[in-house]
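Priority: medium. Attachment 1 of 2:
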């Protein structure tokens, strides 16, 4: 029987007795990839020879080859379990130097196990990077929250390094088999998830399976059931999938798009988003990963060709929309997933855009109505999946959810409409009466289409509710929720931006990603070195490494709610300016124009500003620090009173200063 958790697992003494051929045979029998390369087989042979030499002095240990790390869609080369310590070995056979990328890679393995594998939460984890031909170095054993900073070894000092660690630590006994088969509850970033899904992994492989978030799979299955029903009975259908911030709506959409991209069955699917930064980052991430995968397999794939492929199933919604203006073309896609559907444009917005930018006069549709009309061109069946975030409209001209229902009522009353009970909430309805919104439509309520639990903030499911209470000035609820959060999910405040930067840098082990966020209206953070009007390449900011000053790690460039919506970091600095500030116990809404702040009185613009801070405060997976400037009474645009009451309000909720 295949071992899905690893390719080989045996006591060290058995490993020593077995022949290389027998071990290689077991590894190959568990390797489910269709075409294991000769290069990989040669690497395993080298690892076996080195480990037979280096582990000969380890008594009562156990050895594992290719141990699965589901969140990353990868495997640890080797795990050595010895003296109740978990050693994680990453081989780079033939390398003559210790690469920073390998250091981060093996550190990431340890962080993933600590965060997501149940039996590793309290175990000592020791990552070891092995550049087989590199010179020996003296390793310092430095522990940080039960993880030793990665040790650097070559082919001849692995055993001595392991013994050096076990001489220093006396760990509590644990069951090695229980550890190997431990429940693993991964929570990938949207970029990691997209890469894993694109490589062919299932959503079940890379996401948590505990009861609290099992509806990721439940929702995916339910959408597939609706698609199959529509296909079998020649129905045109629209589904509205709701969820709290970070619940995995985009992940569900990507999963459906990939599953349904089956040209052979005439089922082309496309993932569409009006969020240009999200599309840019995902297209670039998938292209880079495809190039890297091809390189590892000894194949050549250019970035241009990879981008052409990734751009086929993830598209910016405006380009897709424009390709159907002024013609009767039938889309090749039977299934269209619209991410952040609440951000689709009003008729006035799109009509103005078409007239001024495209030369199209008298455009008669809102964006929701036109997008439905394109899928309605199919003669028999089609399905639209709208992924909807409540309270996340952040831009002028965004129609919100009601316009989708108005469009259906005006022009497509025969479509089947699937909704969740949560749509009957003010965050979605935007002052519309519920019966007025859904009246006259063929509506079916389906609870399975709602994602109730945030998986972004895997340390706590309460972050979204806490942020909502904070923004609603529901002080009692916010305090109670913060008490649930504080031990699992650190939130701090500071008046010093350098203190904030030092805090997030201290959390940045491996490729743990951190960055600087601020509202697009935070114009007066400029004296603190935070310039929100700076033009940046978001793909470089989100994807490039620590050695690149354009990346988030440099903490030089700031991204706004428009850049970060739909994406996430591990740790964030949220820089809070006077555009959204507490005055006499209430939020005031402000826009900096010319040389002074002006009150924002338009209700939609006030909503967008509040939602901008909702987005910013829900982007961090593991923790955040909120920076609120001191201000200066010598500067009329940065008076202390503009900042102090907001700072004191957050302190009142229990958030501690650093």
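Attachment 2 of 2:
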């Amino acid at each position: 029987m295949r071992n899905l958790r690893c390719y080989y697992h045996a006591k060290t003494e058995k490993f020593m007795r077995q022949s290389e051929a027998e071990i290689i045979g077991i590894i190959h029998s568990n390797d489910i990839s269709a075409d294991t390369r000769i290069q990989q087989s040669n690497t395993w042979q080298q690892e076996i020879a080195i480990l037979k030499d280096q582990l000969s002095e380890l008594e009562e240990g156990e050895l594992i080859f290719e141990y699965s790390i589901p969140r990353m869609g990868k495997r640890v080369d080797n795990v050595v379990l010895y003296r109740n310590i978990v050693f994680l070995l990453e081989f780079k056979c033939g390398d003559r130097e210790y690469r920073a990328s390998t250091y981060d890679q093996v550190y990431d393995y340890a962080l993933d196990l600590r965060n997501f594998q149940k039996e590793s939460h309290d175990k000592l984890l020791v990552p070891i990077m092995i550049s087989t031909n590199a010179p020996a170095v003296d390793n310092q054993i430095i522990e940080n929250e039960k993880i030793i900073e990665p040790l650097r070894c070559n082919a001849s000092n692995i055993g001595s390094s392991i013994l050096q660690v076990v001489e220093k630590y006396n760990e509590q006994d644990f069951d090695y088999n229980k550890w190997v088969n431990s429940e693993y509850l991964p929570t990938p970033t949207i970029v990691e998830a997209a890469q894993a899904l694109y490589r062919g992994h299932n959503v079940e492989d890379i996401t948590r399976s505990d009861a609290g978030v099992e509806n990721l799979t439940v929702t995916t299955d339910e959408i597939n059931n609706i698609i199959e029903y529509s296909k079998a009975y020649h129905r045109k259908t629209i589904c509205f999938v709701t969820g709290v911030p970070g619940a995995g709506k985009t992940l569900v959409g990507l999963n459906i798009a990939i599953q349904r991209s089956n040209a052979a069955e005439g089922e082309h699917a496309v993932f569409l988003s009006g969020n240009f930064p999200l599309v840019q980052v995902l297209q670039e991430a998938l292209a880079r990963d495809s190039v890297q995968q091809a390189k590892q397999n000894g194949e050549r794939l250019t970035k241009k060709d990879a981008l052409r492929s990734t751009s086929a199933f993830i598209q910016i919604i405006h380009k897709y929309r424009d390709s159907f203006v002024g013609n009767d073309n039938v889309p090749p896609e039977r299934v269209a997933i619209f991410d952040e559907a609440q951000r689709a444009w009003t008729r006035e917005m799109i009509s103005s855009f078409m007239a001024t930018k495209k030369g199209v006069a008298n455009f008669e549709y809102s964006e929701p109505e036109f997008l439905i009309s394109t899928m309605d061109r199919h003669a028999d069946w089609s399905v639209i999946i709208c992924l909807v975030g409540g309270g996340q409209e952040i831009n002028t001209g965004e129609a919100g959810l009601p316009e989708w229902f108005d469009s259906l009522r005006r022009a497509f009353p025969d479509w089947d409409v699937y909704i969740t009970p949560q749509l009957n909430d003010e965050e979605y309805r935007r002052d519309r009466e519920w019966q007025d919104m859904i009246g006259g439509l063929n509506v079916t309520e389906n609870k399975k289409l709602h994602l109730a639990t945030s998986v972004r903030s895997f340390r706590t499911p309460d972050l979204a509710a806490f942020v909502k209470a904070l923004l609603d000035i529901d002080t009692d609820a916010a305090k109670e929720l913060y008490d649930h959060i504080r031990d699992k999910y650190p939130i701090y405040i500071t008046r010093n931006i350098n203190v904030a930067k030092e805090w997030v840098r201290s959390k940045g082990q491996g490729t743990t990603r951190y960055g600087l966020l601020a509202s697009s209206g935070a114009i007066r953070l400029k004296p603190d070195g935070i310039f929100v009007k700076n033009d940046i390449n978001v793909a470089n900011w989100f994807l490039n490494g620590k050695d690149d000053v354009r990346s988030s790690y440099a903490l030089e460039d700031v991204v706004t709610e428009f850049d970060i919506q739909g994406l996430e970091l591990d740790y964030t600095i949220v820089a809070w300016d006077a555009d959204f500030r507490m005055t006499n116990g209430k939020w005031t809404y402000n826009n900096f124009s010319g040389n002074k702040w002006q009150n924002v009185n338009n209700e939609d613009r006030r909503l967008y500003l509040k939602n901008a801070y909702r987005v910013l405060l829900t982007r961090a997976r593991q923790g955040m620090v909120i920076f609120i400037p001191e201000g200066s009474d010598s500067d009329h645009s940065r008076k202390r009173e503009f900042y102090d009451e907001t700072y004191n309000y957050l302190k009142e909720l229990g958030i501690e200063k650093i």
